[in-house]
């Protein structure tokens, strides 16, 4: 029981399968966890729709970061939703700086697959690690800086998908 509600072991297993595949860099296995109509959002890629775009993002990120480490904990799921906490460790390509990003994930399930995946993390903390001082420290909290990072990320994804 989670907060008085029934636990769904199948959905919890689906979350674990996704992160196990992620840790192995197995994008085909990751894709099998997602519903065709999946949506994904996080502080950088605010809203991606459809399995091809969401998986395009994961393939791009894994392709650029050969040293990505993924660890998941606190997986919980019910019939229609679930949560997990995961840690991503990697070297940020733009600066060569090490990043350890703590992420809280929310999931919705439909037809036995993940139909909604939303990750939340501290953008300012991430920017300090990824970009260093003074850029990340001074500008990581500003809306204009966030918009610039988001725009670059989306352009990178568009370029990656066109080249794919």
Q: How would you characterize the overall build of this protein?
A:
Residues 15-117 form the SnoaL-like domain. It comes from Streptosporangium carneum. GO terms for molecular function: isomerase activity. Pfam families: SnoaL_2. InterPro entries: NTF2-like_dom_sf, SnoaL-like. It is a single chain. By secondary structure, the protein is α+β, with helices and mostly antiparallel strands. It has a domain at 9-122: Nuclear Transport Factor 2, Chain: A. The chain is 43% helix and 32% strand. The chain contains 6 helices and 6 strands. Strands 2-1-6-5-4-3 form a 6-stranded mixed β-sheet. A hairpin with a 4-residue loop joins strand 4 and strand 5. Helix 3 packs across helix 6. It is globular and about 45 Å long. It starts with 8 loop residues before the first helix and ends with a helix. The model has no long low-confidence stretch (mean pLDDT 91).
């Amino acid at each position: 029981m989670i907060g008085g509600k029934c636990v769904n072991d199948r959905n919890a297993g689906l979350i674990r399968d996704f992160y196990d595949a992620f840790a192995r860099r197995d994008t085909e296995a990751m894709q099998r966890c997602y519903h065709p109509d999946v949506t994904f959002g996080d502080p950088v890629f605010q809203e991606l729709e459809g399995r091809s775009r969401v998986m395009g993002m994961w393939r791009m990120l894994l392709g650029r970061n050969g040293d990505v480490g993924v660890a998941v904990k606190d997986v919980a799921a019910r019939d229609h939703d679930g949560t997990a906490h995961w840690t991503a460790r990697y070297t940020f390509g733009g600066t060569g700086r090490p990043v350890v990003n703590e992420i809280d994930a929310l999931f919705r399930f439909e037809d036995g697959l993940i139909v909604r995946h939303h990750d939340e993390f501290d953008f300012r903390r991430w920017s300090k690690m990824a970009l260093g001082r003074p850029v990340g420290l001074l500008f990581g909290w500003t809306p204009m800086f966030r918009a610039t990072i988001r725009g670059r990320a989306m352009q990178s994804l568009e370029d990656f998908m066109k080249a794919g």
